[in-house]
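All the exercises in this workshop are built on plain-text protein records. Sequence and backbone structure share a record, each on its own labelled line. The question running through the whole workshop is how a given chain folds. The record below serves as our worked example for the rest of this section.
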Amino acid sequence: MSHVYDVPRISPHVAQSPTHPGPCPHPCPDLSPYALPAPPPVPPGVVDRLRAAGCVFAEDEARLILRTARTPEEVESMARRRVAGLPLEQVVGWAEFRGLRISLDPGVFVPRRRTEFLVSQAVAHATGRRSAAREGRAGAVVVDLCCGSGAVGAALVAALGPRTALYAADVDPAAVRCARRNVADIGGRVYEGDLFAALPAALRGRVDVLAANVPYVPSDAVGLLPSEARDHEPLVALDGGTDGLDVLRRVAAGAREWLAPGGCVLVETSERQAAQAALAFVRGGLTARLTTSEELDVTVVVGTAPAAPPGRVAPDSPAAPEGRTHGYAAPPPPAPGSKSSTK
């Protein structure tokens, strides 16, 4: 559950993306300009109302509403809710994420495009490990923690293949219901509860990839978010505590006992918070590295469990693609009598 709000997050062309191949858990129509008939005429009144409400892409949004609604009454209802400030994805009932059509309910966190970078880093790690999953004897074990709609987990299964065993969890009951729909067709299991406490105990020491899209907005900055996020998404999906890292620290502290040797945990954060986030992973017994996408303005912290005795760097960690990457080590302990400092 990431906090940054990106618009627009639904493209007018939402067929499965050729850059992200893989089966879609929810079959969706090919909306490429070659597959669609001529777009329906957009009632000028709908466009005007959306534009007056501040929708920058008013004509595109109006066309999407028209293609989604089944009756004129639904068109009016959707337009009214959008004008009232609901996110477009909650209005039409789905969001595009990494080429997949993700079902979305009102009040459920909307997956952000920038979180696709976290997925790409997770896929690189899973496919780069010298593991049983790579050798074909079994699929990877993947956990989507703070799963929201289940978009991250669904995208990971689409990329890693149908033998992937997916487990997801969220503390928000509405998110759990939504995620169960989105991952049911790919065999995913979704649990309600607080972080690791929601997961089956049998997963301890078996997880290859743990993606945790934790909230990371500092509490005093939540009020500065756009109203679409602030007023229509759950606070638990946005508020990360005083410095935005409360939930991240809990994940970092507990991840190691759930990871398989050489397995990794990935979280999304801001560049300003990244050093402290990486330090939390190191304190949790993991090797940490930071990867930044300048295009998407997002940083992902990757913590890897040792494949060797504690204190040694895990040899299976692949180089991360598509981003600016550097490792992070815990600072040395302060000399006696000196003042300690943190980066």
